[in-house]
């Protein structure tokens, strides 16, 4: 990885210990962001991440000023909000239903636009503009924290190896209509949106992630989407369990 990026690679013996550390990071960054900017803007991903995040965070609800939290999704599947493939539904079940975050501060795709992926992406960009444009002098939204997962092929959000979505340097959020992983139709943050965040945290667990993590972290393989996530002015965290990090030479065991 680039030595110019503030980088932290931490490995934990168990997923439970990782969950505690991730909740610690979330709480600490929320306090700092609210003190500095008056709010805490977060981008969430799906997969196993919401459950890992919520496992310890829901035990300390009083540590977060939830009314000052604004949530977006780093990518979303173009399905109804109550569909089993919806990242919103997953995050609601694991986290939102257990904490006092105002529903209007959770930014969802418009289910009335599902037939047109371009319109869904444009509407989601409008929501981003509404939240970020009046306080943001950068060309892209600047999130306080983006929480990302990683697939066995190295994809993150809905940015897949070899897809043209990786080449977009202008847009904030774009459609992906040919995902190799079902469902095929999605929207996703672009690499520039990811790379303008104050803090980006990847979370990966399990033996199935060993080889791809070695290619990303030890070998800096630029063909892999997750390796292209390198915040311009922010911090990059990798929170791993020992099963996932077993082949890495660069890691701090906890």
TrEMBL record:
Pathway: Carbohydrate degradation; pentose phosphate pathway; D-ribulose 5-phosphate from D-glucose 6-phosphate (oxidative stage): step 2/3. One of its GO terms (molecular function) is 6-phosphogluconolactonase activity. Residues 15-238 form the Glucosamine/galactosamine-6-phosphate isomerase domain. Pfam families: Glucosamine_iso. Coiled coil: none annotated. It catalyses: 6-phospho-D-glucono-1,5-lactone + H2O = 6-phospho-D-gluconate + H(+). Keywords: Hydrolase. InterPro entries: 6-phosphogluconolactonase_DevB, 6PGL, Glc/Gal-6P_isomerase, NagB/RpiA_transferase-like. Belongs to the glucosamine/galactosamine-6-phosphate isomerase family. 6-phosphogluconolactonase subfamily. Its EC number is 3.1.1.31. The keyword Hydrolase applies. It comes from Ambispora leptoticha. This is 6-phosphogluconolactonase. Hydrolysis of 6-phosphogluconolactone to 6-phosphogluconate. One of its GO terms (biological process) is carbohydrate metabolic process.
């Amino acid at each position: 990885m680039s030595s110019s990026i503030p980088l932290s690679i931490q490995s934990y013996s168990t997923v439970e210990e990782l969950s505690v550390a991730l909740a610690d990071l979330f709480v600490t960054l929320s306090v700092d962001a609210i003190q500095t900017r008056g709010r805490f803007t977060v981008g969430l991903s799906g997969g196993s991440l919401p459950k890992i995040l919520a496992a310890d965070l829901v035990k300390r609800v009083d540590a977060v000023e939830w009314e000052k939290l604004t949530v977006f999704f780093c990518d979303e599947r173009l399905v109804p909000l109550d569909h089993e493939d919806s990242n919103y539904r997953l995050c609601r079940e694991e986290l939102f239903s257990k904490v006092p975050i105002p529903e209007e501060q959770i930014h969802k795709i418009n289910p009335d636009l599902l037939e047109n992926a371009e319109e869904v992406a444009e509407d989601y960009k409008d929501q981003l503009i509404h939240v970020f444009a009046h306080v943001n002098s950068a060309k892209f939204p600047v999130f306080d924290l983006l929480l990302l997962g990683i697939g066995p092929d190295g994809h993150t959000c809905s940015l897949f190896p070899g897809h043209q979505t990786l080449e977009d340097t202008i847009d904030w959020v774009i459609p992906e209509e040919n995902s190799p992983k079902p469902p095929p139709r999605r929207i996703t943050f672009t690499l520039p949106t990811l790379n303008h965040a104050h803090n980006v945290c990847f979370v990966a667990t399990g033996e199935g992630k060993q080889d791809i993590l070695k290619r990303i972290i030890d070998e800096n393989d630029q063909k892999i989407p997750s390796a292209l996530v390198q915040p311009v002015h922010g911090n990059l965290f990798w929170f791993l369990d020992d099963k996932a990090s077993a082949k890495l030479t660069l890691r701090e065991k906890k």
